[in-house]
Amino acid sequence: MVNNSQIIAKTEKTVANTIKKFNLLKKTDKILVACSGGKDSTTILYILNKLGYKPEAITIDASIGNYTKQNLENLKKICKQNKIKLHIVSFRKEFGYSLCYLRSLLNQKGINMTSCTICGVLRRHLLNKYARRLKATKLATGHNLNDEAQAVVMNLLKNNLELLARQGPMTGTNKDKKFVQRVKPMYFITEDEVIEYSKAMKFPVNYAPCPCRVGVYRCLTDEQLTKQEKQRKGTHKNIIKWFLSVQPQLKTKFKSTEKQNYCENCGEPAKGTVCMTCQILEKIK
């Protein structure tokens, strides 16, 4: 039977090996960890701090009732215990509304966007914007192997190979002065392993999923892959193994030589003339 010390040692070694193999971080980097207060981001924040990378934490408060309130309190405890600086960015202060209110305003105008879609767009916008303001050189996220396997399958089923090409332990195909490089040091840690580590460390985290995460595509993909994993152990790992074998070709195919566009409203990186965040905010006016 595996004991807590073995779980802790194995998880930390896997993270350290992933960082080294993919050259994700250097001790000279200024590292921000995107934190929700949940098991994944708390785990990677703690491990990076333990490994001597001196990370700071940044959290985006979407104001989802008691769920985000409790997560924020838990995150504050972890940061205080480990002497980690915490930066808090609020949806209400940045956009004037909570996530749920933003969604209801869009719905009133006949625009049916899921909370996850809205949250994902706005959260990524704020994380990049504030990471740059804080002069971070790397933005680490708590994505685990299950999350990444889901992303691979979702992009394949949508035939979105260009987006798939940007996935991996270090994201993106092109570098840009306004993009802070994102890294995923827990790329090879399964969800079950994160839960085991988190419980072994007795982290103050809420293991319940976000209440807004209902019926979205990722949830459905997660359910199907979990069923496959139970029937065919190693399903998630095999998906990632396949993806990493074709990733070099994908990156080469979709590496762009075109000049990066910037939003004409806010100046942030954008695919077109107006970024997705500004498009959403424009729709609620």
Give structural notes.
The protein has 285 residues and is an alpha/beta fold. The chain has a single domain, classed as Rossmann fold (3-Layer(aba) Sandwich), CATH 3.40.50.620. Helices cover 53% and strands 9% of the residues. The chain is built from twelve helices and seven strands. The protein has helices at residues 4-21, 39-50, 65-81, 91-95, 99-108, 115-133, 145-157, 161-165, 191-200, 217-231, 235-254, 276-283; strands at residues 31-35, 56-61, 86-90, 138-140, 181-183, 261-262, 269-270. Strands 3-2-1-4-5 form a five-stranded parallel beta sheet, sandwiched between helices. α3 (65-81) links the parallel β2 and β3 (86-90). α7 packs across α10 and α7 crosses α11. The chain is globular, with a radius of gyration of 19 Å. The mean pLDDT is 93.
Name given to the CATH architecture: 3-Layer(aba) Sandwich
From the N-terminal CA to the C-terminal CA, the straight-line distance is: 58 Å
Helix % is 40-55%
Strand-residue proportion: 5-15%
Spell the H/E element sequence.
HEHEHEHHHEHHEHHHEEH
Shape: globular
Unreliable spans are none
Tally of helical segments: 12
Structural class by secondary-structure content:
alpha/beta
At the first level of CATH, the class is Alpha Beta
Q: What is the fold-level CATH name, i.e. the topology?
A: Rossmann fold
Q: Describe the largest sheet.
A: 5 strands, parallel
> What value does the average pLDDT take?
93
CATH superfamily: HUPs
Count of individual domains: 1
Walk across the major sheet and give the strand order: 3-2-1-4-5
Radius of gyration: 19 Å
Counting DSSP E segments of at least 2 residues, the number of strands comes to 7
